[in-house]
Amino acid sequence: MAQQPSILILNGPNLNMLGTREPHIYGAETLADVEALCRAEGARLGLEIDFRQSNHEGELVTWIQQARGNRSAILLNAGAYTHTSVAILDALTAVDLPVIEVHLSNIFRREPFRHHSYVSMAARGVICGLGSQGYVLALQAADRLVRAKAQS
Ligand code: DQA
Q1: By residue range, what is the domain housing residue 109?
Q2: Which residues are catalytic?
Q3: 80 lines ligand 1 (CB under 6 A)
Q4: Ligand 1 centroid from CA 92, angstroms
Q5: Of 82, 101, 106, best ligand 1 pocket probe by most atoms within 8 Å of the beta carbon
Q6: 64, 110, 113, 136: which sits with the fewest CB atoms below 10 Å from its CB?
Q7: Is 1 inside any structural domain?
Q8: Where are any strands of DSSP class E within 3-152?
């Protein structure tokens, strides 16, 4: 494992469209803006950041599997797969890493089908509704979890 804790930040389908996609819900920032925010916070905390996005469920599953033994924690905004993907849930439980679930929007203020999350069943915590700041808060939480584990 790398010397500094390494955090895998995964973004699911349609998050590549941030900035133009329903800005009244998701805000005006692009995914590149979110990545820059995460890299800045990672540098401040001394975390290596591996930031990725895919529209493909299987690719997300593969990346989660590859994190086992190589990453210290996973931050996951699985987009719509949050609400549908048993495969992503199974991958998250298989890798045995701390998982923090992030959503830009407050999924509980939205349509009922967004209220259920398979990801939550594997997550240590969930942050939603705070826009890109949620990623920063999730990184701070991951940092604490990883360093506490390193000391135990
Ligand atoms: C989302 C919420 C999901 O319900 C939706 O399908 C997304 C984005 C969010 O970040 O608010 O694609 O995960």
Answers
A1: 6-151
A2: 26, 103
A3: yes
A4: 18
A5: 82
A6: 113
A7: no
A8: 6-11, 48-53, 73-77, 99-103, 125-128
Give the chain's domain count.
1
In a domain, residue 50? The reply is yes
Cβ atoms within 10 Å of 72's Cβ, excluding its own: 23
Kindly state whether residue 97 falls inside one of the protein's structural domains.
yes
Give distance in angstroms: CA of 144 to centre of ligand 1.
25
On whether residue 82 sits in a domain, the answer given is yes
CA-nearest residue for atom 1, ligand 1, is 79
Which ligand 1 atom sits closest to the C-alpha of 83?
A: 4
Report the CATH number that the domain containing residue 24 is assigned in CATH: 3.40.50.9100
- Does this model's pTM top 0.85? My answer is yes
pLDDT tens for 44-80 read: 999 999 999 999 999 999 999 999 999 999 999 999 9
- Euclidean distance between CA atoms 105 and 81, whole angstroms: 15
For the chain, the residue count is: 152
pLDDT (tens digit per residue) in 2-52:
479 999 999 999 999 999 999 999 999 999 999 999 999 999 999 999 999
